[in-house]
Amino acid sequence: DKRPKEEKPAPPLPSEIRNKEKRSEVYAKLKREKKAQKRRLGRERGQAAQRAAELGEEVPEKQVPRTIENTREPDETVCRPDDQELFAGNDADEFNAVLKQVVTPKVLITTCRFNSGRGPAFIKELMQVIPNAQYVNRGTYDLKKIVEYANNREFTSVMVVHTNRREPG
């Protein structure tokens, strides 16, 4: 027989079938077949691993599912707690004494030049939250003068509360 073999046409995709009942039957059948094939492959993997263990061969590694976490590329900007290079430069840092808790931090809180309605309430909350915080009314002073004042009184930080559209930020 030199005649070419007639190949069986592939079953139509469910989306190509117009009849709703027939389409749902074909879809359910495809889904059942796919599930059975997946189960069969899992069973074959398990049997292959069991045979390898019985024969003393190396057991194939278990497949790890691909997730967002294990496919993510490592980010160099994230600080690791065991990174010695990161902590080596802390001795020269101006906040070294504060970080090692040798010096208690003092914070000076001031406002922008033209403070508005909600700013004072926000500053009051900041004063309750931040220990050793002191509020200085800015008035018409330049920020440079406020910073000099803070340096003379040994403040470790200066915080300027700026209100934008009457919202503190």
UniProtKB/TrEMBL annotation:
- Organism's domain of life? Eukaryota
Listed GO CC annotations:
nucleolus; preribosome, large subunit precursor
MF GO annotations: rRNA primary transcript binding
Q: Where is the composition biased (Basic and acidic residues)?
A: 17-30, 59-79
Region (Disordered) residue ranges read 1-79
Q: Which residues form the Brix domain?
A: 105-169
Ranges of compositional bias, category Basic residues: 31-42
- Note the InterPro entries from the entry: Brix, IMP4/RPF1
Q: Which GO terms describe its biological process?
A: maturation of 5.8S rRNA; maturation of LSU-rRNA
What is the protein named?
A: Brix domain-containing protein
